[in-house]
Amino acid sequence: DTEVTQTPKHLVMGMTNKKSLKCEQHMGHRAMYWYKQKAKKPPELMFVYSYEKLSINESVPSRFSPECPNSSLLNLHLHALQPEDSALYLCASSHEGSDGYTFGSGTRLTVV
Amino acid sequence: DQQVKQNSPSLSVQEGRISILNCDYTNSMFDYFLWYKKYPAEGPTFLISISSIKDKNEDGRFTVFLNKSAKHLSLHIVPSQPGDSAVYFCAARRGVNDMRFGAGTRLTVKP
To answer: Do B97 and A55 touch (CB under 8 A)?
Structure first.
């Protein structure tokens, strides 16, 4: 298995909803990442987990809450989001310090 | 503060010719540089990389050049093929897990 699987592919949520994005990989990668990408902008780093511990938090608002329950899973819990949080959320994984990350296809999130 | 910049949002080239995609960075702490390719509805896929101690890395039709003094790198694709049409992201890494991306350049290779 050489893929990163993200679910759901599309999500529409209201500003009072609570939802979760899920990311799964079975490549034995011990580093996992969340990126956020808005249209015509670069993917922006949000969080990095290394060996299931949060190692980088890029000053992301607390309405985004990451969780790494085990070495294969990465979640992003969403609560009280704003319309400007609508974006493509990309998950990636890698071996520590490896050349390239393996990205999932992303979750297209729309906040209404 | 965008630390990695791709100033050309799009590039169009004829099949068989050379495609040159450019990237500039501002942070001298970056020590590893990468190019990713992205097709619609897919995540970016790793293409080629270069360490800051080198100035060139070649892999088949793809060559990446690094000019550290100018904080500039470029990706050359020769010869370009229609299947190369995609969005290309430049990325720069600092340390083990901190990677930043440029905004991407959409390459179109015309038959």
So the answer is: yes
Token pair in block for residue B82: 């229609």
Nearest to A106 among B43, B49, B98 (CB): B43
Chain A, chain B: beta-carbon pairs less than 8 Å apart: 62
pLDDT tens for chain B, 111 residues: list them. Answer: 679 999 999 999 999 999 999 999 999 999 999 999 999 888 899 999 999 999 999 999 999 999 999 999 999 999 999 999 999 999 999 887 888 999 999 999 999
**From the CB of residue A9, how many other CB atoms can be counted at a distance below 10 Å?**
11
Task: Using a CB–CB cutoff of 8 Å, tell me whether B104 touches chain A.
Answer: yes
Asked if the C-beta of B40 comes within 8 angstroms of chain A's C-beta atoms, the answer is: no
